[in-house]
Specification:
The longest helix has 25 residues. This protein has three domains: about 70 residues, Orthogonal Bundle (Arc Repressor Mutant, subunit A); about 130 residues, Nucleotidyltransferase, domain 5 (2-Layer Sandwich); about 170 residues, ATPase, nucleotide binding domain (Nucleotidyltransferase, domain 5, 2-Layer Sandwich), CATH 3.30.420. Helix 3 packs across helix 4, helix 9 packs across helix 10 and helix 9 runs antiparallel to helix 12. The chain is of the alpha/beta class. It is globular. Strands 6-5-4-7-10 form a five-stranded mixed sheet. Helix content is about 45%, strand content about 20%. The two termini are about 20 Å apart. It contains 15 helices and 15 strands. This is Glucokinase-like ROK family protein. Belongs to the ROK (NagC/XylR) family. InterPro entries: ATPase_NBD, ROK, ROK_cs, WH-like_DNA-bd_sf, WH_DNA-bd_sf. Keywords: Kinase, Transferase.
């Protein structure tokens, strides 16, 4: 989180956030880290202990005098983190330190609409409760693959989520589980997750680029997510990269996503298999009836020229879009994640090459372009962070 802005957050939020990120601390350590007078901090800690939001956790290491007592977040705290993809559902239940204590993953079909999908999320959370994972949830965070009004907690005209437009997702989650809830775009929660617990944990200005069924960019500026006035900032999949080409699902022609999203890559790989240009893909198509991004990655590893070319062409397109954004916004890091990140270092090398060649030299002199460290966990990790933030803010 942005150090400058969050100095003005309520003291209880700063205390809870510090214990979440650092673990048990003594009262003296908290006073030093938060830079608040000791009497003021002690009063706040007593209130948090009385509310059972934090607990005492045994003696601290001796600093030469009487040993002080550590305080920590209540061990019973539980947050539900949900990453809803176009074809998948990932859920983690975490403790107050955002460490996973249970996880569930299964296929999902967003086209069925919000009621059955949210009902399934409810069933999995109920299973966790019946298994003894938690007594009650303290907060729920959900990421969805489409634009979201963060203020209202509702999806807004999501292209691949029929029936979800304006659906009161946050309100229903909060009511069903009796706790604060938060809903955001999936790439934003991935960016938050990577910044909190991944490769970008010391970076205040970054892009997280999700390459998957859709293509999007989570933008972090000054330590905070930039969502734009209506919640659709970072929708780079619909930037036009050619005046010709396939029609995108948004209705325009030549969008990045239409040329290198998951469906576009699968179509191009299938064409390469059927034409005989790719022996590796032809073999996999004959064996399985379809080819995937994983097949393209494996074919490239085996030296299949067509697979390598597909990846390089995709990296060139992504890099050309990012090059313009780098010259415009001058981030200090770009992290590549999402399902197509499995295409690996051939993709990464092509993106880097284009970004470094086309962006302003001053903007790329110290710009790492790297793969996500959290991988498929980035989404649930970020959803847990958001769930904890909204919970801490509502506690008083």
């Amino acid at each position: 989180m942005s150090t400058a802005r969050h100095l003005w957050d309520p003291l209880h939020v700063r205390v809870l956030r510090q214990l979440r990120d650092s673990g048990p601390l003594s009262r003296a350590q908290l006073a030093d880290r938060l830079e608040v007078p000791r009497p003021r901090l002690l009063g706040e800690l007593n209130r948090l202990i009385a509310a059972e939001q934090i607990t005492e956790a045994g003696p601290a290491k001796s600093r030469g005098g009487r040993r002080s007592t550590l305080v920590e977040l209540n061990p019973r705290l539980r947050f539900a983190a949900v990453d809803l993809g176009a074809t998948s559902l990932d859920i983690e239940i975490t403790n107050g330190r955002l460490e996973p204590v249970a996880a569930y993953t299964e296929a999902a079909d967003l086209r069925k609409g919000p009621k059955p999908v949210l009902a399934r999320i409810g069933e999995l959370l109920a299973k966790a409760r019946s298994d003894g994972v938690y007594e009650h949830l303290d907060g729920v965070g959900l990421g969805v693959p489409g634009p979201v009004s963060f203020r209202d907690g509702v999806p807004v005209s999501p292209p691949i989520m029929p029936g979800w437009d304006g659906y009161p997702v946050r309100e229903l989650l909060a009511r069903e589980h009796g706790c604060p809830a938060v809903v955001d775009n999936d790439v934003n929660i991935m960016a938050i997750g990577e910044r909190h617990g991944g490769v970008a944990d010391s970076v205040d200005d970054m892009f997280f680029v999700k390459l998957g069924t859709g293509i999007g960019c989570g933008i972090i500026i000054g330590g905070d997510v930039y969502r734009g006035i209506d919640g659709c900032a970072g929708d780079i999949g619909h930037i036009q990269v050619t005046a010709h080409g396939p029609t995108c699902r948004c209705g325009n022609v030549g969008c990045l996503e239409a040329l290198f999203g998951g469906a576009a890559l699968a179509a191009a790989a299938t064409a390469a298999a059927r034409s005989g240009n790719s022996p590796a893909l032809a073999e996999r198509l004959a064996a399985h009836g379809a080819v995937t991004a994983r097949d393209v990655a494996d074919g490239a590893t085996e030296g299949d020229a067509a697979c390598v070319q597909l990846i390089r062409e995709g990296g060139r397109l992504v890099g050309s879009v990012l090059a313009g954004l780098v010259s415009f916004a001058n981030p200090s890091m770009i992290v590549i994640g999402g399902g197509l990140a499995q295409l690996g270092h051939i993709l990464l090398a092509e993106i880097r090459s284009v970004v470094y060649r086309r962006s302003l030299p001053l903007a790329t002199g110290n710009l790492p372009v790297i793969l996500s460290e959290l991988g498929p966990r980035a989404g649930v990790a970020g959803a847990a962070v958001l769930a904890s933030e909204i919970t801490f803010e509502q506690w008083s």
